[in-house]
Design brief:
Blueprint lengths: L3 H93 L7 H17 L4 H144 L5 H10 L6
Helix pairs in contact: 1-3, 2-3, 3-4
Length: 289
């Protein structure tokens, strides 16, 4: 039958083997974890890429749809702008008859001068009425100038819009063809990327399963290690207890032997050493130098 020390030695050997196994499994688990995380990152990146391609395809399809609508509405739009131009020209001709002979700047200067005079000069009621009437007339002429300026600006804007429509009409067919081709390319790339991401996800799942198995195995070994450590501790405690008992027994035997020798010395009248003296004193035996 094995002694406690032999048992501890055997347990330490087993403990060393288990620790090596656990270290190996932990290293394998770390590698599997890194591999899984890398595959998951690749998978997420592929999903993002696929979504971008899908967005690009959908964007191209939407743009093609809008371009088709724009192409169909182009002529109608140009016709509407031309009709609007005609109406503005007629309004311009009508207002040209009421256009003041004086320039806008001259009228504005006169308007400001009269306004200043009304505000800073002490006037009779009659003079003030005359100046106020002049302000109204001047303001009316200024408004005619401004209105004509606004109409002319609208006419210029309409001409620019018509030119833009015409330019877009020329480019519409080329853009439709190019964008439709790009949308088809994005669609094919998206399908390929989705397939690639599925394979990567499957690989990541397989690695994850291996990782879970490794962690479960490491957990069982860790539990075994904890159990062995407890056994070793119990055995060491038992050895310590036995050694303490043995030590106490040996000390008691030695004390008895010293006491015996001291008694014999006393009988012979020999001198005792300090240890012998203390032991006999504890026993209550009288001593003398």
């Amino acid at each position: 039958m094995l002694s406690e020390k032999q048992k501890i030695e055997e347990l330490n050997k087993r403990l060393s083997i288990l620790k090596e196994q656990k270290a190996k499994i932990d290293a394998e688990a770390n590698e599997l974890g890194e591999k899984r995380d890398k595959l998951n990152q690749q998978f997420q990146g592929m999903r993002i890429d696929a979504q971008k391609l899908r967005d690009g395809r959908d964007g191209a399809n939407e743009e093609v749809r809008k371009l088709k609508e724009e192409r169909n509405e182009m002529k109608t739009g140009i016709h509407e702008k031309i009709q609007e131009l005609r109406g503005l020209r007629e309004e311009t001709w009508s207002m040209a008859k009421r256009k003041p002979p004086r320039s806008l700047q001259s009228l504005q200067e006169e308007f400001e001068s009269i306004e200043w005079k009304i505000q800073t000069t002490h006037l009779s009621l009659e003079d003030e009425k005359i100046l106020i009437e002049q302000v109204k007339q001047t303001e009316t002429q200024i408004n005619v100038h401004k209105k004509l300026g606004q109409i002319n600006q609208k006419i210029a804007d309409l001409h620019a819009q018509i030119k833009t429509f015409e330019a877009r009409s020329e480019l519409c067919h080329e853009r439709l063809t190019a964008i439709a081709r790009k949308g088809q390319e994005n669609h094919q790339k998206m399908l390929a990327k989705i397939e690639e991401s599925r394979k990567t996800e499957a690989s990541a799942d397989a690695v994850h399963q291996s990782l879970m198995q490794a962690r479960e195995k490491a957990k069982r070994i860790r539990e075994d290690i904890v159990g062995i450590v407890k056994q070793i501790r119990c055995l060491k405690d038992r050895i310590d207890q036995e050694e303490n008992i043995e030590k106490t027994r040996n000390e008691e035997t030695m004390r008895k032997e010293i006491e015996k020798q001291a008694r014999e010395k006393l009988k012979r009248g020999e001198k005792l050493n300090w240890e012998e003296f203390q032991i006999l004193a504890e026993k209550g035996i009288g001593t003398q130098d």
